[in-house]
Amino acid sequence: MDQSERILVNEEVVKKNKLWPNFIKAKLGFRNHWYPVMFGKEIEEGKPVKAMLCGENLLLNRIDGKVYAIKDRCLHRGVAFSKKPECYTKETITCWYHAWTYRWDDGSLCDIMTDPKSDMIGKHRLKTYTVQEAKGLVFIFLGDIEPTPLINDVPPGFLDEGRAIRGIKREVGSNWRIAAENGFDSTHVFIHKDSKLIPNNETVIPLGFATDREEEAKGTLWEVVNNEDGPKGVYDNIGQHAVPVVEGKVDGETVLRPVIGGDKRIANQISIWMPGALKVDPFPDPSLIQFEWYVPRDENSHWYIQTLGKEVANEAEELEFEKDFNEKWEDWGLRGFNDDDIWAREAMEEFYKDDWGWIKEQLFEPDGNIVAWRQLASEANRGVQTLEDL
């Protein structure tokens, strides 16, 4: 999308909503945070791969096993290297237009093959990004400060030793904030009432939750974690402090009941973490935990990175988990269940696209956890990504 076509943050909406102004401004996400951009297996040795993160165009390459990332834009005339990547040495990339050549590790302009005596050589650098691989994912620190430890920007338990991770990545046509709230929304379980996961995995999901007003008044329906060190997030406790709705009624008449596939209990604890990651424990099976990220791509789309984690004691158990993932969990859970979420996010996009949705919406009692998340994200972020940063 050309910058002139971008939809800017509606400053009038920001002024009207004083509760979470930085959340509204963060259409492109937050700066100075770690984000997963893809799986490590997507980047082969010596084969540059492009990606978009928070509106910035990046180019990644694996050199001697290590992943590097640079801005996908030549300093000379602004063309993207990814249009025709040319790497004449493994340590460098050369612009296909005028042969300006840069080093992957520090972005320095080391040569210009069309004018080897140019005074520009050695005086300019491309923007580079700090990269870290963990649990099969490639994380990039997008920002201006010294990178914080990765453990501060992932859900608790994700990096635990002995936890095997498998997952998929998809591009979804909605803003990342809508995606995050969809995942953390307690009563959106209604859209999953016909999911194939329920009968296939012998479980049950209620139609919704009747909020306990006393628990709501005591503030026990959610818990905010905003310590100086460590991840920052919100726990949704509505499952423990609310009554599951097992009859859908209209005018007092029961018109709907949840499908009961079995008695397996899942999704006992749901939490959301900065800069935009959900943890569902357990899910989609009592033996698994789902960790998923809503990574800002641009204003109107996000990378949906879905992973499942399982504790394994050895390589044989990890291979068995991988087999189960490929044969059922990706199909039943990440696709069969979460495809409903993708559809819902894209259906919401139009309402929130111009930012007025944050003013026009009419929230109800179970949405208190979403309000808590918005406030945390607005206050605990390390910076807001803007068009000026691109």
Automatic annotation (TrEMBL):
<dbReference type="InterPro" id="IPR021028">
    <property type="entry name" value="Homotrim_ring_OHase_catalytic"/>
</dbReference>
<dbReference type="Pfam" id="PF11723">
    <property type="entry name" value="Aromatic_hydrox"/>
</dbReference>
<dbReference type="InterPro" id="IPR036922">
    <property type="entry name" value="Rieske_2Fe-2S_sf"/>
</dbReference>
<keyword id="KW-0408">Iron</keyword>
<keyword id="KW-0001">2Fe-2S</keyword>
<keyword id="KW-0411">Iron-sulfur</keyword>
<dbReference type="GO" id="GO:0046872">
    <property type="term" value="F:metal ion binding"/>
</dbReference>
<feature type="domain" description="Rieske">
    <location>
        <begin position="34"/>
        <end position="140"/>
    </location>
</feature>
<keyword id="KW-0560">Oxidoreductase</keyword>
<dbReference type="GO" id="GO:0051213">
    <property type="term" value="F:dioxygenase activity"/>
</dbReference>
<dbReference type="GO" id="GO:0051537">
    <property type="term" value="F:2 iron, 2 sulfur cluster binding"/>
</dbReference>
<dbReference type="InterPro" id="IPR017941">
    <property type="entry name" value="Rieske_2Fe-2S"/>
</dbReference>
<protein>
    <submittedName>
        <fullName>Carbazole dioxygenase subunit</fullName>
    </submittedName>
</protein>
<dbReference type="InterPro" id="IPR050584">
    <property type="entry name" value="Cholesterol_7-desaturase"/>
</dbReference>
<keyword id="KW-0223">Dioxygenase</keyword>
<dbReference type="Pfam" id="PF00355">
    <property type="entry name" value="Rieske"/>
</dbReference>
<keyword id="KW-0479">Metal-binding</keyword>
